[in-house]
Amino acid sequence: MPPRKLSLDELNRLSVSDFKEAEKFAYCLILDDIRSLNNVGSVFRTADAFRAEKLYLCGITGQPPHRDITKTALGATESVAWEHVTDVTALVKQLQADGWLVAAVEQADGSTSLADFSPEPNKPYAFVLGNEVTGVCDEVIQAADLVLEIPQFGTKHSLNIAVTAGIICWDFLQKK
After folding, report:
1. Which of 17, 56, 62, 131 is the most exposed place for a label (fewest CB within 10 A)?
2. What is the pLDDT of residue 12?
3. pLDDT above 70: percentage of residues in the chain
4. Contacts for 164 with CB less than 8 Å, ≥ 6 apart
5. How many domains does the chain have?
6. CA 158, 161, 163: angle at the middle one, nearest 5?
7. Residue 157's pLDDT is what?
8. Tens digit of pLDDT for each residue in 28-85?
């Protein structure tokens, strides 16, 4: 019998209230100065799909409610815990003080290839994703515990922020 697509009812997804009560995986995403509201909405959806603990929207990153975020988030703004923080560097330092390991996702000297990344057991991680043009700011790179780089093999030197979030989340959960 050939495979068939499952109906929405067959997927047995959590309700928003069940999602809010469910245990989350020990990581969060930090979006710093993300210009595209569609990218923000897509990352909300990714954070929901991979049950992130929280999403931090920093600097100029747009916040719900906004129709462009809502359009791509498909309801994830209601399920995913989020907070707007003006100063990303202060947030990084606060998370570190609270025991989180902070990883900037960027191409930088001394970066660790995602292929070689092994998360420390029983440690929560915060992954910083930067502006679509300028990337993660130097101050955050300097403050981070590590810099992760996604290997790329084509002519382009960057990935869309929403794609990057999906890769990072999936990789982290597979390794944990």
Report:
1. 17
2. 87
3. 100
4. 105, 129, 150
5. 1
6. 90
7. 87
8. 999 999 999 999 999 999 999 999 999 999 999 999 999 999 999 999 999 999 999 9
Residue 144 domain-assigned? Answer: yes
27: CATH? 3.40.1280.10
Residue 12 lies in a domain: no
Q: How sure is the predictor about 8, in pLDDT bands with cuts at 50, 70 and 90?
A: confident
Domain boundaries, position 131: 23-175
pLDDT in tens, 34-48: 999 999 999 999 999
Please report whether residue 6 resides in a domain: no
Query: Cis link prior to 65 (omega < 30° from 0)?
Result: yes
Residue with tokens 């907070």: 83
Distance (Å) of CA 20 to CA 71, 85, 132, 158, 165: 21, 21, 30, 33, 21
Q: Is residue 11 part of a domain?
A: no
Q: How far apart are CA 54 and CA 153, in angstroms?
A: 31
b or e along 17-36 (b: 16 or more beta carbons within 10 Å of the residue's beta carbon)?
A: eebeeeebeebbbbbbbbeb
Alpha helices per DSSP H over 50-176: 67-73, 76-79, 88-97, 138-143, 161-175
- Rounded to 10 deg, the angle between the 37-49 and 161-175 helix axes is 20
